[in-house]
Amino acid sequence: MKVHGQPMxxxxxxxxxxxxxxxxxxxxxHAFVTAQLTTMEAVAHAITSMQLRGAPLIGAxxxxxxxxxxxxxxxxxxxxxxxxxxxxxxxxxxxxxxALEEMRRALQPRAPSERPSAAYRRAxxxxxxxxxxxxxxxxxxxxxxxxxxERKGQKGRLNILTHCNAGxxxxxxxxxxxxxxxxxHDAGIPxxxxxxxxxPRNQGASxxxxxxxxxxxxxxxxxxxxxxxxxxxxxxxxxIVGTDxxxxxxxxxxxxxxxxxxxxxxxxxxxxxxxxxxxTIDWTLEDGVRGIPIEQRDGAELTDISGRLPSGxxxxxxITPPGSPAANYGFDVTPARLVTAxxxxxxxxxxxxxxxxxxxxxxxxxxxx
Length: 369
Hints:
This protein is α/β, with parallel strands linked by helices. It folds into two domains: 2-128, Up-down Bundle (Four Helix Bundle (Hemerythrin (Met), subunit A)); 142-359, Rossmann fold, CATH 3.40.50.10470. 39% of the residues lie in helices and 18% in strands. The strands form five sheets. Strands 8-7-6-9-12-17-18 form a seven-stranded mixed β-sheet, sandwiched between helices. The chain has a four-stranded mixed β-sheet with strand order 13-10-11-16, covered by helices on one side. Helix 2 packs antiparallel against helix 3 and helix 2 packs parallel to helix 4 (94-107).
């Protein structure tokens, strides 16, 4: 995708050939700043502090974290230590664990002296694979948007509601839920995106709105509680969101508030699609509500908010009474019964064990392989 007209990915190896560059997403939308990561610990901090976020991008960053660790010490012990440290940074997104297993599988059989260069090659390949997967999601999802536009008689605009940020900032490039939207916009379909602010971190208002604006996609930021009202009055043609983990039966974990949007969509007959790259599927897990660990983050994300003053200064202020406790749940789980369809790089399927296995016949339920 592009930033100020220039092609860019969200993560890259710097010109020195070993350090890792990222977009510092905590500075958006008020400032576009990049950061250089030189240690595995710096990568772990970037993930936990959400300088980078989004399930696919977290996985890519973790792969490069392993590279940085092995550059210093390529021993078996340090490989395991790096994987354990990085795995502990975010508990909900399955891509993190998947990427670390891919790195471990590629590196363990090699002699320690061969591991650093092999690690960088595998991490780069994982990034390229992510770009291809996400473009595939866009290609598979585009017909759904085209069909919705045709059902409207190709009149007015196609109104799409999304929650959180599942665009290119959440991946290496293209995004998941936003990939079909970008392709539809480029194909001339007059899409308009209702962007949930996505409290408490405001990833919709700060990140989704920013990247849609960079691409020229018409959009409107709304408060999180507006979606149901818009659906009741026919102002939402379809919903599409991403997911940080999808179970083998089609339950999806996404940013907190997604479940409520799915309920409203079901009540109003609005299609509710979930876009997911295949590494986001947890084939070992059936019941998402009971089985997916839900991250609880620092309450300050809820009690404090940052913004730009008229002077241009960016400040953080507290919006709750002193002493009031805050519970900050990062994700919720939407049961498969509320999902109209899953959109993957291989195609669109029902949110069910049968639907997923129809696209991934090589996967046997419960094997994790």
